[in-house]
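Below is how a single chain appears once it has passed through the pipeline. First comes the sequence as given, then the structure the pipeline wrote out for it. We keep one example in the README because the format questions we get most often are answered faster by looking than by reading.
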Amino acid sequence: MKKPVLVIMAAGMGSRYGGMKQIDPVDEYGHIIVDFSIYDAYLAGFEEVIFVIKRENEKDFHNVIGNRIEKIMKVRYAFQELENLPEGFEVPAGRVKPWGTAHAILSCKDMIDGPFAVINADDYYGREAFKQIYDYLSGQEDNEKYQYAMVGYRLKNTLTENGSVARGVCDIDGDGKLVSVTEHTTIVKRGENAAYTEDDGKSYTDLAGDTIVSMNLWGFSKGFLSEIAYGFRDFLQEGLQHNPLKCEYYLPSVVSRLLDSNKAEVKVLLTTEKWYGVTYREDKPMVMAAVKKLEENDFYPKQLCGKLEAAANFCFEGVYKEEIPWGNGHINDTYRVTFENEQGVKKHYIFSSSYGIEKSLQKHYILQQMNKSIFKNPVELMENIVGVTEFLKRKISANGGNPERETLNVIPAKDGKPYYVDSEGEYWRAYVFIENTVSYDLIDNPEILYEGGLAFGRFQSMLADYPAKTLHETIPGFHDTRERFETFKKAVEEDVCSRVDLVREEIQFVLDREEIVDCFQDLLRSGKISFRVTHNDTKINNVLMDKDTKKGICVIDLDTVMPGVAMNDFGDAVRIGASTALEDEQNLDKVWCDLELFEACAKGFIEGCGGKLSQEEIKLLPMGARLMTYECGMRFLMDYIQGDIYFKIHRPGQNLDRARTQFKLVSDMEHKWKVMENIVKKYM
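Resulting structure:
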């Protein structure tokens, strides 16, 4: 059976603006309503779209919409033209109005060879609706009757507060089949219900809010096109006689004729989705607010087409079905994406990176957009990751391990590169998803933290003989605490967001501890310690644990793998793992450094390093915990002062809360300093 095609009626787009270039966006990222329909349709399974447009709008349409969609779907154009009439008919003098929605679909007659769905370009239908219509068309064929479908909306989910609307009220039988559609041109909202008038408001008839209405989301078999063509002559003969300048040939009228003649059945697919459209100028703020809420809830990404374009350009198999936000990283946008093959087997992917992976039918992956404002050179970053992961695979294999489970595996783009650059210049990558794993943001079990420390220690041990000088510095001066300190002072002086007066106490906390900022740099200069290949972002949630054994199996998030000092890797693990609260906890009474957890991490890390650490490095591990916690707190505070431009926030003041938890941990470590030193000595 041929795959369903999506037909989008867009001949009216741009008409009220005098051209396509003025089409209004409905969010801050420049998306128009049809972008969301395309996105939802793609997730439902549609791979081809036909836009029905005016021929004179072709160039502008392509520039405004088409060139983005072509990166993810097959795009074709059909032209709705007044002159497209059966033999023997002519356009009446003075006629400028198109011939209606049925005529728009007739424009596609020679382009469709299977089932197809129809929508309006300037209406929002909801993701569930596209899934319903795609699934129906994918599994239904005509029998002695045409088998069509229509997505039915509850009337209350389609109304506006700003005036009357026209809706097709549906009569549905006990089998869920459409009996008829009655057009009411003047329906007004009345609370959760509605009413219509047919005498210019002299009287009204109530309609229940749950009344099912058609919003022009139809699913047809190929035979519908012949029926449109057949009925067009009859329509013209009558319409040109009574209303030659304004008569229109509507899809529901064709459907009604086929229902009345018992030639077709229409399954009504009920949805609870809200329909949105800009019927009135006053409707636009409501639509924008609805879209914003969906984006804030991660239902839609900031770059609709960018993510789909990336998904279409990595070496994945099957049809892209869905994605969910994944993890809680502060920097990159990460998604677990699902693909589905022809047999209905689902596969999850994480957009990030992986080479030469033998794909099985049930592999899962991750999709990730790299943050260019943080990582200025994504190409060099990916060179680091590919180099390190390929090196780790060889080490793991030599040790009898499983390289597809114990390190990240980069999925190449279709051009062979370990990344993809979308049409807007954004960088994406993809990794094989490691099954049956879990990560922890808050740890209260010493065994878990031991496993996390062990994993980071093994990571450093395996890379001990990696040629560190070949690594690019993905973030210059990442752990140059002195430079961080001077930059912090400058941010305080500039006070670009007028927030300094709100955090005087926190600022003084940073300034009072200047004596520790040069600790590791001084030791490096003196030769007492040396640079190693380090992870530099050793939060415990960057270790994947086996769900069953709770053993640490894989270190992830390799963006900051660079030359560094071992104590920083240990310290970053402690500041998260040994803390009794989440990083953004607002109640500081819940925050302290748990010494049992600290010891578990120290024991695991030292064991994992397998003798690769010097005695001096081991002795300095408590300072690594103190300094890294201090440095991260300083960075969170600076970001708050500068307006939250680096770390992602999900609520106002989140970076300030992050800073305060780190400072509380530093203070607690300082009170427990001798105990921490004695703990480490046990494992020297």
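Residues 621-642 form the longest helix (22 residues).

See the next section for the split statistics.
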